[in-house]
Known about the structure:
- About 50% of the residues lie in helices and about 15% in strands.
- The protein is built from 20 helices and 14 strands.
- The protein has helices spanning about 20-35, 50-60, 80-95, 105-115, 125-135, 155-170, 200-205, 220-235, 240-250, 255-270, 280, 285-295, 300-310, 315-325, 335-345, 360-375, 380-385, 400-415, 420-440, 475-495; strands at about 35-40, 65-70, 140-145, 180-185, 350, 355, 390-395, 395, 440-445, 455-460, 465-475, 500-505, 515-520, 520-529.
- It is elongated.
Amino acid sequence: MSRIFNVSADCRPGLHYMVNIDKRLREIKAMVDRGDYFAINRARQYGKTTTLKALERFLRDEYAVLSLDFQRLSHKDFESEGFFIKAIAREILKKPGLNQIMPDSVRGRFEELVQSSDRDGRLADLSGIFCKWCQESARPVVLMIDEVDSATNNQVFLDFLSQLRGSYIGRDETATFRSVILAGVYDVKNLKSRFVAEDEHRVNSPWNIAADFLVDMSFSVKDIAGMLADYEADYDTGMDIQAISRLIYDYTSGYPFLVSRICKLTDERIAGSEQYPDRRMAWTREGILEAIKSLLAEKNTLFESLVGKLTDYPGLRALLYSLLFTGSTIPYNPLNRSLEVAEMFGFIKNSMGTAVISNRIFETVLYNLFLGDEMLDNEIYKTAVRNRNRYIENGRLNMDLVLEKFVVHFGDLYGQQREAFLEEAGRRYFLLYLKPIINGVGNYYIEARTRDMERTDVIVDYCGEQFVVELKIWRGNAYNERGERQLLEYLDYYHLEKGYLLSFNFNKKKQTGIKTIRLGERTITEAVV
């Protein structure tokens, strides 16, 4: 049976093409060897379950590993201590290979728990059995619990954490787990994010013993290349593994689901299509961009989850809108509630002390979402829709004409607006104008290194052809010349002969229009609105 790229549940060696995670497993084992209690908190579909299952196999020679999944527990199992400890005992007894790691006397105690009355059980009973297990076990015992998010808004779970915390603090006197590992999206050191009630007992975390988990679980270019090398050994596509790996990383920043999804789409949907009839043609730059276009057009569980969080957390929506459209530089501050939530769900990351959107894919999804809210009632968008066919000539995008007509249409519609409006809305309106022109065929993204209040670079990919459009606020000729030099640097980076500069000029004596200039061997089309 041939392997596939997997985006559902955990990845399994032998069935799926996988990134080699041995290095991070060694890093996590070092924490277990130290006796750390810690939480693996990462956004959805970030490889947490795959990592836990691989870690269980990695630790087996030295440790007795008890792995639980709280997804298997029902809401009723958290209603009382009695229900909870019976559910835990029931799940433990179901574990395959249990006889190899659990003393018979401990098994008997768990069987008694399952048969006991729901009203009689207490967490202390469960804690006592765990203590007996750790005391009698031939190897140190490690407890791993996946999907703790399904439990973190239940008081009985907080009390369970308190029991683990108490055992950790008293570990010099009483046998307990060598290490406890919890995995989920929500940071269990900050459980107040899941509670509405604000009484002290419910918002103070019983998990403040947790060590910092600093292991990088994203995929590097090298990681992606290793996975693609396995694929290439099976299919001999002739792909440039390093170039393809870099391209995938540039769009995903190594977010595991996004990496695997692009690869899966390329292998199963792009290859064999009319445009890319075989794998050799699909595993090219053009084929990968086609897969990215398909990804951005689909409704998957990750994107649905992200959008849902914007409804649940209004402050999050305002933060992301500001990052995308106003060019605001927002210092990274983990104590800021909106930033904390945005990072926890994977929207942003800390880049040299500044909050930035995590990757190009998420950024484009958010741009499309926010712009979609404005499309039906926005005149610049409607104007572009009416004229979109004229901008495509023989399958190629005429970016000169796009800028020329945008200058005219923007001036007609918004030329009399106040400067404050134009400064905030100008770039957003260009994207609204651009979107229906390239929609369904091309992609765009914002170059993260140039997004600020004064300047934004839009990178457009259309049918294998790339365009760099610098959007900037006019601050005089000297600033404009500096912008031209910066644009030339980006043309060198992208190996392009031509670039585009769109300036929003609020000087009442300005001359709007479009012109072409030569700077050395490069051509720049400059447009002023």
